[in-house]
Amino acid sequence: MTGKKLLLQALKENGVQYIFGYTGGAIMPIFDEMDKMGDFHFVMSRHEQGAAFMAQGVSRASLSSNTPQIGVCMTTSGPGAMNLATGIADAHMDSVPIVAITGQVTTGVIATDAFQESDVIGVMMPICKQTYMPLAAEEVEVTVHEAFYVATTGRGGPIVIDIPKDVQNQSVSSEYSFDTKNFRPTLPGFYYHPTPEREPLRRAIEMINRSLRPVLFCGHGVINSNSGALLQQFAEKVNIPIAFTLHGLSALPADHPLSLGMMGMHGTVEANRTIMEADLLISFGMRFDDRVTGRLSEYAQHADVIHVEIDPSEIDKNVACSVAINADVYRTLHVLLGDPMLTFKPRRRWFEKIDGFRQVMAEDLRREIDGGVGDNGRLLMKSIIHRLSELTEGKDLIVPDVGMHQMMAARFYNYQTTNSWFASGGAGTMGASLPMAIGVKLARPAERVWSISGDGGFQMNIQELGTIMEQQLDVKIILLNNGHLGMVRQWQTLFFDGRYAGTPMQSPNFGLIAEAYNIPYRKVDKPEEVASALQQAIEHQGPIMLEFICDASEVILPMIPSDGGFNDMIVKRPKRKKPPATSDGKGEKS
Amino acid sequence: MNRRAILVFMLDRPGVLNKVSMLIRKKMYNVDTLTVCSSRVAGISRMTITLQEDDQAKVTQIIKQLEKFTEVISAKELDTDHSYWREVAIVKLEVDSAHLESFRGRYNFEVLDQKGGDIHILQVAGATGRIDTFLDEVGRQYIIEIARTGVTALEK
After folding, report:
1. B interface toward A at CB cutoff 8 Å?
2. Which of A190, A314, A321 to mutate against chain B (most B CBs within 10 Å)?
3. Which residue of B has its CA nearest to A155?
4. Which residues of A touch B18 (CB under 8 A)?
5. pLDDT greater than 80 at residue A78
């Protein structure tokens, strides 16, 4: 038995079906063995970064399902491994368990600057949950099983296994044996607390019952522990509104009467104002990231905080809490729901106030959505997303890229399906959507998957159109093309006096690109064609690309400036003071 | 700035030291001292890190993040009231013997070597401050070379 066989066998034992990757000198033995075994569906990405995001797609889409799978990507040494780094750092920021397997030069030449040698462990260590380098065939199996255990235990995260080529080919000694069934990793310091302790729960219940202006926070942990339905029950039982983090979206139906929508920098007015005036934040599975809190000194000044979180290092990191519950969200909600002390409160004045917040921007947004175009007659992203939401009844799987269109997709799609929103959040990696959508589609083949990108991010991993073509994956691609890096442009409009440095962008003829990849394509620049184009994509079997020509001056509001507090929330587009001065004038014309 | 000592027990695996030092760098600290040695239990190392920080919340955050590493078994802060912090210095001095002998009794040092009359190599052990005072009193201008181990600590 060789290292390569043991590795693949261990992947199989951990339920791996898909391997995403790109071959090369130092990983060839494993690829060869994989081909001989025929047990895996191999998907060749067109760039290694794509493989990491495809693996993320599988993990993100399946982990809360009945058939969870860990995404696996596999590349060669040196540049192959380095190209994975962004996708791995992204998974680390968003707590997504994936396993990356990288070939390494043979042990005899490690640290000699051999051809395609990079210090993979050294590079990956700070951007993943754990790294391994098995140095003998006997270490391979235990390493892979431990890797899957660590990736999925407690807060999820990416694992890198760097395996030298000679170890791949090496045979184990005749005495070697490994008991997969009874395997438990020897990690005396690696533990987590799934079960909440009684005392903080008791105090939490007291505070919840006492609170006049409470708000619930739904974070990524709610999705990861498959607790959306429980959170909904809990919210209904105690009658408390719910605000969502970016990764908490789709944990429960977005149009639930208690839902305030997304919180934070581009969150809704109702979520942010509610948080500002709240006397109690009850947060489940989230980490008070800076895009959620704004300036910390001004954040939720009147509120006590109950923080339910699986990762103890997140508790008191950014926001100090009154009650810390270091436990699994599902188990905590389960215990809370069974507690007879919890009481329903009408909180009429609180909800009246919140209804007032809901009205602040409602009319402006409705006008934009109904109008469908900006002052220059070009399409508005929010209107397109809203229409997509209507036509799909909010039931489809949405994989946005990063930028303005992402915030539009977060805000204006009416999520009805549990775990149907897959976004690069913490790292904010442009180019994530197209490859991630491939993984999502493979993990959830029966559901419709939309990859929504801007013209900037789309071109960062545009080569994965080749993967979609080759795999004939039914991914619906929406390209919201405004000729700019829209989110940065918005900051330039608001904070840089309209100087559009480095944001206008010339793009290729996307129709010809789609044609080259044999993907049907339709360009839409009139509001009356939006619905029919979306309908065409819905009805089409197989991949299709829709390009919408959008208004570059559209903004996503409200916005809390990155160094500002909730009091600085911008809800109205400021009047333009002077024409923006760009060297080529492109900024103004668009 | 307050000097803090953090004691960490961890699996003796390659790369752990790398991880710990990277975390401290990521948190924007400059390590004062860092010592690693084997513990009572085979396969488990103990590390003592000292750094400067006044904010208790930040120290707690480092400790929590250290505990997150799969290899780390425990991490905690030690304070001077409830633990001993000690280090060893080896000092090469050019100083006459009579001057040095005047400190005997007050300081615990050992002469490891003496050559060419005035060249002494001393070993002095104790708390960081105590070693500093000894060197100040003897006269730092006489020091040719000095090596210090950095702090290791043990709870009372």
Report:
1. 9-11, 15, 18-19, 22-23, 26, 57, 60-61, 64-65, 67-74
2. A190
3. B68
4. 122, 125
5. yes
Asked if A237 and A218 count as a contact pair (C-beta separation under 8 A), the reply is no
Of A357, A379, A410, the residue at which a domain comes to its end is A357
Q: Could you tell me how many CB contacts below 8 A there are between chain A and chain B?
A: 46
> By residue range, what is the domain housing residue B89?
83-155
CATH classification of the domain holding B10: 3.30.70.260
A4 within 8 A of A37, measured Cβ to Cβ: no
**Tens digits of per-residue pLDDT, B67-112?**
999 999 999 999 989 999 999 999 999 999 999 999 999 998 999 9
Q: Which domain holds residue A79?
A: 3-169
The beta-carbon neighbor of A130 closest among B10, B23, B70 is B70
Nearest C-alpha in B relative to A320: B57
How far CA A188 is from CA of A191, A479, A569, in Å, comes to 8, 49, 47
Over range A388-396, report the average pLDDT.
98
Residues of B in contact with A311 (CB under 8 A): 68
For residue A220, give both structure tokens. Answer: 């990524």
Q: Tens digits of per-residue pLDDT, A180-232?
A: 999 999 898 888 889 999 999 999 999 999 999 999 999 999 999 999 999 99
User: Strand B33-38 vs strand B109-115: parallel, antiparallel, or unpaired?
Assistant: unpaired
Residues of A with catalytic roles: 48, 115-116, 165, 487
**A109 inside domain:** yes
Q: What pTM was estimated for this model as a whole?
A: 0.94
Domain match, B73 and B56 both: yes
Q: Does residue B88 sit in the same domain as residue B145?
A: yes
Q: Give the Cα separation of A216 and A106 in Å (integer).
A: 53
DSSP conformational letter for A170: P
